[in-house]
Amino acid sequence: MTPGTHLALTLTLSGGTAADARAVIHTLESAFGTADDMPGDGGATVHTAAFDNDVPVGAGVSPPTVPPLSAPVTVTLQGSPEAVRRADETLTSVFTVREEGMVSGDQEQEWQLRLEP
User: Fold this and answer.
1) How far apart, in whole angstroms, are the C-alpha atoms of residue 57 and residue 69?
2) CB-based contacts of 102, cutoff 8 Å, min separation 6
3) Across the strands, what pairs with 47?
4) pLDDT tens for residues 65-110?
5) Are 23 and 75 contacting, i.e. CB atoms less than 8 angstroms apart?
6) Taking CA 53 as the corner, what is the angle to CA 22 and CA 6, rounded to the nearest 5 degrees?
7) What 3-state DSSP class applies to 30?
8) Distance between CA atoms of residues 104 and 107, nearest Å
9) Distance of CA 95 to the CA centre of its chain
10) What's the order of all strands across the beta sheet hosting 109-116?
């Protein structure tokens, strides 16, 4: 078994299309493994996804190439400080990111980011 860390992350995405939401989620898969669920093509305006995986040490080094976003996407990241930090670093390596807010607790953090096309 490969040594690693168990990371749980929940994200909520608004703005853009379902394809934009899937692009963001696919980007995070390089750091978190497979998402529990993927947004469909329905008429939803808010999409959610969760990661709850054992992540090998060194994961997240090279995010995939993703198509550009069609519109700005607001992403709320919620999880442990390590999970949120890793998600922020991964998204920042691929997208233009503007931090819009942060709430920190003892065991969990919540960050709101705006990803620009």
Assistant:
1) 29
2) 109, 110, 111, 112
3) 13
4) 888 999 999 999 999 999 999 999 999 999 999 999 999 888 899 9
5) no
6) 135
7) helix
8) 8
9) 11
10) 46-56, 4-14, 73-79, 109-116, 96-104
